[in-house]
Amino acid sequence: MDNSISRIQGAITRNSELFEEVSDLFKIFGDSSRLKILCALTQSDMCVSEISEFLSITQSAVSHQLRILKTSNLVKTRRVGKNIIYSLADQHIKTIIDCGMEHVSE
Amino acid sequence: MDNSISRIQGAITRNSELFEEVSDLFKIFGDSSRLKILCALTQSDMCVSEISEFLSITQSAVSHQLRILKTSNLVKTRRVGKNIIYSLADQHIKTIIDCGMEHVSE
DNA sequence: TGAATATATGAACAATTGCTCATATATGGA
DNA sequence: TCCATATATGAGCAATTGTTCATATATTCA
Predict the structure, then answer these.
(1) Residue A32: per-residue pLDDT
(2) What is the spatial distance between Cα A19 and Cα A26, in angstroms, rounded to a whole number?
(3) How many angstroms separate the CA of residue A70 from the nearest CA in chain B?
(4) Residue range B15-57, pLDDT digits in tens
(5) What are the tens digits of pLDDT across the range B88-102?
(6) First to last CA, chain B
(7) Looking at strand C, which nucleotides approach a protein CB closer than 7 A?
């Protein structure tokens, strides 16, 4: 077996947890509802009912997905009056989305 | 409703198919087996049995995943002797993986 | 405080997914 | 041509996922 290749194997095997983490991250972007939500938040912070209305997704479905996004630290919240405003946790999220967009429209 | 926000809504609604495509792309990166395979191929072209051995994944499982990767045009193949050598279809794939890796190790 | 409203949550269900096991296919080389 | 080997494929199954429906929770504001 080629030496450099066996080094790769080692790297991948040893970092098995890293691959879980990264694939879990991609998994979150791998649902169109979540992707749309994230993309919407890329342009403007929004409350749950706004997101729901804009994307024509049930309020419940949006809430469920937002919980996943929040648990994964991709979005954060703040209260304004009666509403909970969701926003992206950081700008790198947009980078990831753009990265995928670019690949699709090659 | 704010005008700029309604513009976003239009953009997302009209490009519903785009979001399906992009989320389908991320979905592929969203499985650790596939991610490992892609990552391995980032470093070196490999045949099926090599991938299988390196990642300690069944030959069958690898084959199944490779078919998905090939159908999605993420990998391409060439025959060398008895083996089918798999390689990345393009270098942008590495960019996407790196993008995810970076986010995880923030 | 009480009603109205916004958001969250839980159970249930259908659909999808990734694996295994068995086996088919196809190619190279003797 | 025939065998050995490499890869692909199909069925079946358990696990996971995303949605809906019903309802709980919580906060604002009159």
Answers:
(1) 97
(2) 10
(3) 15
(4) 889 999 999 999 999 999 999 999 999 999 999 999 999 999 9
(5) 999 999 999 999 999
(6) 36
(7) 5-10, 17-23, 27-29
pTM: 0.92
Indicate which of B93, B99, B106 best probes the interface with A, i.e. most A CBs within 10 Å of its own CB. Answer: B99
| CA torsion through residues B92, B42, B98, B104, sign | positive
Q: What integer pLDDT is reported at residue A13 of this predicted model?
A: 76
Instruction: Give me the CA B83–C1' C24 separation in Å, rounded.
Output: 18
Q: Is B99's CB within 8 Å of A95's CB?
A: yes
d(CA B21, CA B6): 23
The rounded distance, in Å, linking the Cα atoms of B20 and A53 is 19
- The answer to whether B75 and A79 have CB atoms below 8 angstroms apart is no
